[in-house]
Amino acid sequence: MKINVGILGCGNHAKTHADVIHKSSYANLKACADIDLERANVFARKYDCDHSYASLKEMRSEHELDLLLIVAVPAVHPQLISEAIEQGIKAIICEKPLALNEQQARDIHALATENDVLVVEGLMYRSHPQIRRTKELLESGAIGDVQYIHGQFTDYNKLNPKNWRSNRSQGGGSMTAKGCYLVDACNYFSGSRAKAAFCMESINADLNVEVGETATIVYENGVTAQFETNHRSVWREELRVCGTNGTIVIPHAIVTKTQKRFIEIQRNGAYETRPMETERIEFEACNSYELQLINVYNHIKKGVELNLPITDSVINYMVTDALMKSVETGKLEPVLWDQ
Ligand SMILES: NC(=O)c1ccc[n+]([C@@H]2O[C@H](COP(=O)([O-])OP(=O)(O)OC[C@H]3O[C@@H](n4cnc5c(N)ncnc54)[C@H](O)[C@@H]3O)[C@@H](O)[C@H]2O)c1
């Protein structure tokens, strides 16, 4: 039987989720809501959804929902998750960023646990098979011991205060828009707890919003990770994991809806004298947002393991807090595990 899904926040990205639900055989878009009721109405018409509302409360008072997708601007995510739990919703996918700091993430985790509610952060890239395959390759020692991770997720984002990405009060900045994926990827592939973090930030003075972060994370097992996220260079979404015996490159690591993907294992190679040995692993076109929804559906129905448990999200915000502290102090800051 199909699960009934509600969407809260009917802006640009909600369409990606609605497209997936619309085509699925396991989910039904039962209702949608947005503080801008007209936007919710237009959205509902587009996706043959019979019910649109101006708030979660109104939507919830008329419908039982098996899953709520929160796709509103970042600053309101913690509040909306807490309202949804209060109103008896039992499963939530909240778009990234789940929270703006560690305390908010911990509060969400505690509330969800207390009320036996499933909360999953929408870092959909984790559901793409290339990420699982990379992790398996690392665990099988395909490139020896991991030493270094590098990530880039960048884009020319037009500075426009009406877009949340350029608006600090709505939780904007390249870190919440893009860097959150890289923190997660570094933590996931490092195979270790983060020890300390350092970060430098660029601010757009006109809008007083962050437009770039250059970050370093040091792990307890000796792995070092570095990443760049910014809104002022071409679209790039690459991850490289370097080990004692080679490198795995994921050239298109984050956003996948319709394209085939590949990862490449690179070994040896020196200057012009020794060509690099490469091995390419290809992946059929698939939609990561769909795979994320299927994973959550299978977790609810059959107890299948989640691709991204909320405990990983909480750790990501611990590391992010250390990165942000470092921006303030200009120093390498410890990741505080025992609070
Ligand atoms: N996973 C991805 O690939 C991906 C891509 C784009 C955006 N996103 C995420 O999706 C979220 C939305 O981004 P967007 O680009 O669609 O933004 P958007 O501004 O186009 O849409 C946000 C919508 O939320 C509504 N909203 C704001 N406050 C609300 C509230 N209190 N209750 C209900 N609705 C409210 C706004 O009216 C707007 O319609 C962000 O968290 C963003 O990070 C994820």
CATH superfamily heading of the largest domain: Dihydrodipicolinate Reductase, domain 2
Rg calculated over all Cα atoms: 20 Å
Strand content: 25-35%
CATH topology of the largest domain: Dihydrodipicolinate Reductase, domain 2
CATH architecture of the largest domain: 2-Layer Sandwich
* Content-based structural category: alpha/beta
Number of helices: 9
The number of E-state strands comes to: 15
| Unreliable segments of 5+ consecutive residues | none
Number of domains: 2
- Element string (H = helix, E = strand): EHEHEHEHEHEHEHEEEEEEEHHE
Major sheet: arrangement of strands: 14-13-12-11-7-10-9-8-15
Instruction: Summarize the amount of helix as a percent range.
Output: 25-40%
CATH class of the largest domain: Alpha Beta
Notable characteristics:
six-stranded parallel β-sheet; 15 strands; binds nicotinamide-adenine-dinucleotide; 9 helices; Dihydrodipicolinate Reductase, domain 2; Rossmann fold; 33% helix
Q: How are the SSEs ordered, and which strands pair?
A:
Blueprint lengths: L2 E6 L5 H10 L3 E7 L3 H10 L5 E2 L2 H7 L4 E4 L6 H10 L4 E5 L6 H13 L3 E5 L6 H11 L6 E11 L17 H17 L3 E11 L4 E11 L4 E7 L1 E12 L2 E5 L10 E7 L9 E7 L4 H15 L7 H20 L3 E2 L5
Parallel strand pairs: 1-2, 1-4, 2-3, 4-5, 5-6, 7-10
Antiparallel strand pairs: 7-11, 8-9, 8-15, 9-10, 11-12, 12-13, 13-14
Helix pairs in contact: 4-5, 5-9, 7-9
The chain binds nicotinamide-adenine-dinucleotide.
